[in-house]
Amino acid sequence: MKLHWSPRSPYVRKVMIVANETGAVNGIDCVRTAVVRSKLNMELLGDSPVGRIPTMVLDDETVLSGSFTICMYLDSLHQGQKIIPENGKLKWPELELYGVADGLIDTLLALRGESLRSDSAGWPEVITVCNAKIIACLNWLEERCHNFTGRPYMIGQITTGVALDYLDFRFPDILWREGRPRLETWHSMFRERASSCATEITDE
Q1: Do residues 6 and 33 lie in contact, with contact meaning Cβ atoms separated by under 8 Å?
Q2: Crossing angle of helices 91-115 and 124-149, rounded to 10°
Q3: Does the predicted model carry a pTM greater than 0.90?
């Protein structure tokens, strides 16, 4: 399996954590792939018309685009505790958590994009909206942290941890731990997992 990969992408990190948790990581060939909005990566585009990371090319040349789809595939390769619950009472609460955490990542990347605009400091209105959404997501996670702390480790918790780490990585001035002690405690446990340690975001 070939994975178009970047050490800075939270979406890629989500995939790599799942790969470590499911034992699939040793079968993945990670290919460093740079993606910027202003320039096409022709090698990546040759594998996938979507042209985004993560993209995984399977041994039979099937191409999977998007982190959730790739995580579903990796989850299908093992017989242990499922990362994406297939049914039962855990399914929808876990996917609810996933939706909020993944939305937080989307918003952080939108804010990052505004901060990199060359024509100005970004659109103030967009930045204001992004910041409001970030605070709302963090408060939601703090309020519901006790609901997922005792659950099996699955896709919602993985994505939550990735989002919080990315927040620390790109926006250290957003002091999200203040007033959110339960989320801070949970995040400390996330940071201690072997799969988290093996997939640290770096600015290489």
Answers
A1: yes
A2: 150
A3: yes
- 35's tokens: 């993606």
SS3 at position 29: strand
Q: Tell me how far apart the terminal alpha carbons of the chain are, to the nearest angstrom.
A: 23
Q: CA–CA distance from 59 to each of 56, 146, 149, 158 (Å)?
A: 10, 41, 37, 26
Delineate the domains of the chain, giving CATH numbers in brackets.
2-77 (3.40.30.10), 90-198 (1.20.1050.10)
- What whole-number distance in Å separates Cα of residue 195 and Cα of residue 175? 25
Query: What is the Cα–Cα distance from 107 to 62, expressed in whole angstroms?
Result: 30
Tens digit of pLDDT for each residue in 7-35?
Answer: 999 999 999 999 999 999 999 999 999 88
Tokens of 4: 């178009």
Residue type, 177: R
Q: Which tops the pLDDT comparison, 130 or 88? A: 130
